[in-house]
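Before our next group meeting I need something from you. Please put the record directly below this note.
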Amino acid sequence: MSLPLWCLFIAALLLVATKAPVAVAMAREGKKGYDNRHPRAQQAALTGWGARAMAAHANHFEAFPVFAAGVLVTQVTGSSGALIDTLAVLFIIARIGYTVLYIKDVHLLRSLVWGVGFISSVLLLLSPLLS
């Protein structure tokens, strides 16, 4: 399996992994802990770092389709090489950094890191032109 496909797999796992800090926040902020009967209502009521964790988690779902499409473009067109691998890994690093920075409320750097991830995805989409 190619490195971009491994990165796609990791990105899919991040969709679930970024729920962990949200669940911790829900357990700490809730009167009765994690509310499995009404988790969306409890998530909507989160404040502070918990709300930021939820926003970061939601943003992973927004970023994933563009990255997935970019990786699939590389596979369908046979685009490969160091640049493609670097862009895929850069996306993963950016998404992890984005989550940490969002939870810690480092907003300006977080936005810059988001941009790096987005540009990586767009360049993967344009990979046939880069090869």
Q: What stands out?
A: The mean pLDDT is 96.
